[in-house]
Design brief:
The protein has helices at 3-16, 21-27, 32-64, 76-101, 103-112, 117-146. The protein is mostly helical.
């Protein structure tokens, strides 16, 4: 496969399932800088895409798959999100998004809470870059230890 295609796949993967992009980056044998740059870029592009199109995506989903009103199911993840939002607000959700919630879900949540787009971009970008730095470092250390 062409290297450009592999990098585009990594960027796309980072925008949707951020934490799972690092094993793929490891398999590509990219350098620390490349992993950090491409995963950060993909994560930020994912935040921008999903924050701008989340209302459209949700409305389209509801039209295509109408559901009967049913009782909300309370899960551990739901409790974590509500508790984090009440205690830490946008910064807390942003910090959990790349690693636990996934970028689309975390972005949908903060858009639903009617946060201003500039704040969403700021906090989510900081969280994505932070986690990209941490996971790129761990990926690089793992690569050094294995080889």
């Amino acid at each position: 496969m062409n290297d450009l295609i592999k990098i585009v796949i990594l960027i796309g993967f980072s925008g949707v399932k951020f934490a799972m992009a690092f094993p793929y980056a490891f398999a590509l044998s990219l350098s620390f800088i490349e992993i950090f740059f491409y995963t950060s870029l993909g994560g930020v592009l994912g935040v921008i895409f999903f924050s701008n199109f989340s209302e459209f995506i949700i409305n389209t989903w509801v039209k295509l798959f109408p559901q009967k009103k049913k009782k909300r199911v309370i899960t551990k993840k739901n409790k974590l999100v509500v508790k984090t939002w009440k205690k830490y607000g946008l910064p807390g959700i942003a910090l959990l998004t790349p690693i636990l919630l996934s970028i689309p879900i975390g972005t949908f949540i903060v858009v639903r809470y009617k946060e201003p787009k500039k704040r969403i971009y700021l906090f989510m970008t900081v969280a994505v870059v932070f986690w990209s730095l941490v996971l790129s470092t761990l990926t690089n250390l793992f690569e050094i230890a294995v080889f």
